Amino acid sequence: MTVVLVPGIGCAPWQFREIVPGLAPEPVLGLDLPGHGSAPAVAPVTLEAVADRLAEQVPPGSLLVGHSTGGVAGLVAAVRHPELLSGLVLLDANLPVTPEALSRKTSRAEAVLGPMWRRTLETSMRSSWGTREPALGEEVVAGILATDPDAVRPLWHAVLALDPRPLLAALRVPTLYLRSSRDVDPAALAALNPRIEAVDLGPAGAGHWPHLTAPGAVLAALGRFRR
Fold first, then answer.
1. List of E strands, 108-213
2. How many domains does the chain have?
3. Which domain holds residue 101?
4. Is the model's pLDDT at 200 over the cut of 80?
5. CATH number where 164 lies
6. Dihedral in degrees, nearest 10, Cα atoms 138, 182, 216, 188
């Protein structure tokens, strides 16, 4: 079974480097989101188009591990291509399911359309990094800000505007949600779909990139899920 690693918006597969050795002996495939790295862009940039592009590259029967927007795109791919994956891991993806948390998320989408959107992006990413390894956090944020805005802006808007509940309810593959910083209620998530197992990594204080700052906790949760 291939483990496919999909990073978040403005991010890159190297950010999974701390967990890759622990995924052995399965083969590992890292994918860039469209318009990121050397990956060709899609037009228009929609979650559906991004998910379909990823689905073209994923070997059938894979376990897809998606961080943040990579997880949202993985969710869309799993629903649109229900026979593609053997499992799905959503790593701190922005997928709130309670009405209050969903309202907080969608209310931010309008700011992405305004003239100060890049400052909003930078502030959001810096504030979500957490307290561990600040120099590494600066490297990650710099990479996000250097990514083509034509790839970043519409995709970020799509994620913020999305109501994920119908997609989560429609999942038909075993799914693990690893919460680290996102406002996602584990009990509400499990009630929405019993195929979804939720693990809260919040007490580890790892911020939004736990695969870089708390890889041991991520690998432990993945190990339990894969057994």
1. 175-179, 196-200
2. 1
3. 3-226
4. yes
5. 3.40.50.1820
6. -170
